[in-house]
Structures are given as structure tokens and as C-alpha cells.
Amino acid sequence: MQPSNGTATTSLWSKVAVITDLFAFPLRTSHYLELVNPLWSTHKLQARIERVWDETKDARTITLKPGLNWRGHRAGQHVRVGIPVEGMHYTRTYTISSSAEREEQDGCFTITVKAIADGRISRHIVRNLKVGDYLPIGLPQGDFYLPDAQPVKPLFITAGSGITPARSMITSLIARERLPDSVHIHYAPHEFDMIFGQELRQLAQQYPRYTLHEVHTHALGDEQEKRRQCYFNEEQLSRLCPDWREREVYACGPPALLDAVKQLFEQAGRFRYVHTERFRAAFAEVPKDAVGGLVRFAQSDIAVQADHQTPLLRVAEDAGMNPPHGCRMGICHTCNTTLVSGCVRDLRTGKIINEAGSIVQTCVCAAAGDCELNQ
Ligand code: FES
């Protein structure tokens, strides 16, 4: 599907649907078309899994063919994906790992998911999703992408699955034959843990303008202290990328890495040249005397004990509820509910919310004593 053709097809179809909807009432034509091919429906957006590919022992790339309403992404953007698991519906957000130009070839894009130890959904995606499954998806979103006016010299700093937007950007630049002098520093425990390792090493050999530095954080040993020596720091940065003060930074990875990058560039007066993409919200340190409490979900008539740091969204899901949610990091507000009584803490700021009727973003708030939510 060429994006331009896809847009034309969608617009033509919209005009036809105005007429055919009269005969389909009380449903819409799109509901009947969905029965023939879910990708033809226009009242909701779905994607079919075309291929699954294991990148490492715990990371899998999934190729998705989106439906008619899809619009092309910009390299670096993310997409929301609905995951049905045992009768529950979950939503997760993943960066699109393929280039924007890939969609112009076969109408598909990819997401690359790493199974994390306590991530039941990521483990389900990596182990159980199969070719032919249909998943509800959102439209591409996010402002973590290269500007149209090309950055002079990008410096990509990534770790773990944070490599996905960088891979999308680098392969997009190559596909457009606009690859500038680019340096990429990537952190992975071992060489074999690096997602897209083989591909990016080959690109680095093929394109002298793309320099890849791999930092293997377990190279000196598995102990925390030895690993710490391999973490991002100024000496290491200056050694791997001596001209870092002249570059525009695109960083994606765990909060500790992003905080360290921001701090260093802030000290160097280069803060405005740093662009970061987070997979989860940055949480403030929880006070030592913080306590959880009994959380009551009023509409569901469910009450469960919760600790002081587990987001209430997770508490609700663990209690068997299926509350609305999207980004799970405090951006989209899909998870908003109101406080009926009691006290919760915003984990990002540490701020206590205790006024009845206040909005509570359940994905970034935890119990701070007993509380009742209008959910
Ligand atoms: S799920 Fe997006 S703000 Fe909570």
C-alpha cells in the first residue's frame, strides 16, 4: 500500500460509504466489510501480523500490515497496540522499528518487542502472537523524529530495546540517501544481546558515515560495580565521540541512561540539542515512610490492598479489572479517573492528591493510604 494511494483509496471509500451506510443502518458498511477482511474496516484500525522474527533470545520483531485508515509514520514515532490476553484487553505502546520508506514498498511496518522479566504482556507478545493474528492499533504518534531540515550530525545514544527508534531513523536516512555523519553508541549486556546487532554492524561497514560503538555492560563481569564502570559517562563519551559537543543527540533507553545523558549535556550547555524518548515515566524517589493502603474501586465494587509504589492501573489489572488505558506513562490521560476519598501519590512528582473529585492518572499514581476511586 503506497501511503498516497492509500489516502486516495480511503477518501474514495469514505464517499461511497456515505451512501452504502444508509442501507447498512443501524450498523455501518464498515462493520460488514470487517467480516470479510478486518483490514477493510474504517470504524476501527487493525493490523494483521505478517511475520514474526526472533532478533535475540528475548526480543522479537513483528511485521504488521495495517488497515485502510493507517497513515505513514515518521521514523522514530511509536504506535499503540491492543493485546488481547485471556479475555482481557491491554494496550501497549511500541516504537516502530522499520523505516518510513518500508511502508512505501509493501505497506507494512514492524515493532520490536523485548520480553521483560515482570512484563506479562511483552512476554505474551514475544512468545504467543502468531502470523495471521489481528491486533487493534492506533495511528503513529510522537515527536521523537529527525527534523525535515536534516540535523548536521546526529549522535544516537541507545540501550536495550531503545535501539528501535534509532534503527528506524538510520535505515530511513539510508533509504533516502541522506545519511549524514552519524555516531551511534549502544549499550547492551553482551554482543549477542544487541537487537539488530548484525544488521547495524553491516551498515557500519558499508556506510563510512555511520559509526557504531557497542558498549557491552557485562564485559568486565556481572557484578554491579563492574557493570557500572561501563555505563555512560563523560570520559567514555569523549573517547567514543570526541566531537559530541557539535552533535544533535537522540537518546532512547532506560531512565537512568536518559537522566545521565541529560545531566551531562545540561552541564555542557547543550541541553536544547538533546532529544529523548522514554519507554516509561520517570518516577521520583518515594519517601521512606510512604505507605500503601486499601484501594477501593467504587464502580467495580472491588477492594484490594496495594503498596505505596505500584501504579493503581496495575493494581486494578491484578485485581481482574480491565480499566481503560493507553500509554501507561502519564501522557495520553486515557486512564484518568476521579478520587472519591482518601489519598494517592503522583509517582512522577511525589505530590499527594487527597481532594475528593481530583483527577487521578492511575498509570502514574499509587496508593498513599486507603483510597477510593470512581472506577
Ligand atoms: S495510560 Fe496514558 S496517561 Fe495513563
Describe the structure.
With 375 residues, the protein is of the alpha/beta class. It has three domains: 3-136, Beta Barrel (Elongation Factor Tu (Ef-tu), domain 3); 154-277, Rossmann fold, CATH 3.40.50.80; 293-373, Beta-grasp domain (Ubiquitin-like (UB roll), Roll), CATH 3.10.20.30. 27% of the residues lie in helices and 29% in strands. It contains ten helices and 17 strands. The strands form four sheets. Strands 12, 13, 14, 15, 16 and 17 form a six-stranded mixed β-sheet that branches. A hairpin with a 2-residue loop joins strand 3 and strand 4 (88-95). It is globular and about 60 Å long. Mean pLDDT is 89; it is low at 1-5. It binds FE2/S2 (inorganic) cluster. FE2/S2 (inorganic) cluster is lined by residues 325-328, 330-335, 361, 363. Its cofactor is FAD; [2Fe-2S] cluster. Residues 42-147 form the FAD-binding FR-type domain. It comes from Acinetobacter corruptisaponis. In the N-terminal section; belongs to the FAD-binding oxidoreductase type 6 family. This is Ferredoxin reductase.
